[in-house]
Every structure is written in structure tokens, then in C-alpha cells.
Design a protein that fits this description.
Radius of gyration: 14 Å
Shape: elongated
Oligomer: single chain
Order of helices and strands: HH
Number of helices: 2
Distance between the termini: 15 Å
Low-confidence stretches: none
Amino acid sequence: MKELVKKIEETMDLFKVNAEAQVVKGNKAAGARARKAALELMKDLKEFRKASVADAK
């Protein structure tokens, strides 16, 4: 579970950097990277939810 949380944090940092580059600088490639990171983040968060519910039982 700790590894999953660390992966989520890393992906979130990557998303923040690229999203900011897109919004502030208008970098289109950074926007694509931010969207990709958002998809990975969504998958990881779903996995975290499953693991969290399993641990709670």
C-alpha cells in the first residue's frame, strides 16, 4: 500500500508540473503529458480505493 501511495504522489507531482506548463506557458505537449498522468492517476486511485476497502475489512 505504501508503494501505491508513493506512486500516486509521484504521478500527482508530474501532473501538476505539466498542467502548470500548459496553463501558464501554453505548452501543448505538456497538456498531453498532463492528460496522460491524469489517466494514470485515475487508475491508481481506483486501485488504492480497492486496497483501502480490503484493509478496512
